[in-house]
Design goal:
InterPro entries: Beta-barrel_OMP_2. The chain is mostly beta strands. The protein has a single domain, classed as Porin, CATH 2.40.160. Helices cover 8% and strands 53% of the residues. Strand 9 and strand 10 form a beta hairpin. The longest helix is centred in the N-terminal third of the chain and has 20 residues.
């Protein structure tokens, strides 16, 4: 379903852009909008978060079952010139990931079916600082690429919880750092600017809080666990 959603968004972007590009010159909407030094807006969207694992020893991979989450936030844009902008996009990102362990992680130990699964709920306050590089405006649309760094606070983190996986609690860190890259298209409509975009995010720091037992079947073989994800946002300015 997620792949179909991404393909549909990409198809709609390219179809509308093609219609604008290969049509005759149109009346320009919001002709002076991008001349503002500061502009504001908001966004709604979807996310798909994953984990990238590095392991200490060669064992079966920990499987990550992803879900589609929801994004909402605000935008502050500072114009540098006709082709460059600096953007601050604080938002709330909610997601759930489910880990599945292979029984080989529990060799010589008694375990139940629930021990093979861990649910990780995350609610991030995500704050990226981005550099937006745009092309020349063509009729009423303007493609761009965007990249930058970000930080996030996980409001659902249980980093300080004294219970670990031996009590069914998979713990993650509350503070995360990312780098991001993506692309999108600004569409200048009659009343506002509408922007669909796709962005990939990649964590810089390890997110797992290890169990007290260094040989824990849940965290003992994890060298690092880093979040990565894809955002599809729809911006209104």
């Amino acid at each position: 379903m997620k792949k179909s959603l991404y393909c549909l968004v990409f198809f709609l972007i390219t179809q509308v852009a093609s219609a604008q590009l290969f049509s005759k010159e149109r009346i320009r909407n919001l002709d002076n909008f991008d001349k503002k030094f500061l502009s504001y807006g908001y966004f709604l969207g979807f996310n798909s978060y994953d984990f990238n694992f590095d392991y200490k020893f060669d064992r079966k991979d920990i499987l990550v079952n992803k879900t589609t989450g929801f994004n909402v936030g605000l935008i502050g844009n500072m114009r540098i010139n006709n082709y460059m902008d600096i953007r601050l996009e604080p938002g709330l990102y909610m997601t759930t990931r489910n880990l599945e362990y292979h029984p080989s992680y529990f060799q010589g130990m008694e375990y139940t079916d629930s021990d093979l699964k861990r649910e990780i709920k995350s609610t991030y306050i995500h704050v990226p600082l981005l550099l937006k590089l745009s092309t020349k405006r063509l009729n009423n649309f303007k493609p761009f690429i965007v990249g930058g760094i970000s930080t996030a606070i996980n409001l659902s983190s249980n980093e300080k919880n004294p219970d670990d996986n031996s009590n069914g609690k998979f713990r993650t860190k509350s503070n995360m750092y990312f780098y991001e890259i993506g692309f999108g298209i600004d569409f200048y409509l009659y009343w506002f600017k509408f922007t669909p975009s796709i962005r990939g995010v990649f964590a810089i720091n390890d997110e797992v809080v290890r169990d007290y037992d260094p040989n824990s079947p849940w965290t003992g073989n994890i060298e690092s666990m880093k979040t990565r994800g894809v955002f599809i946002n729809f911006t209104f300015q």
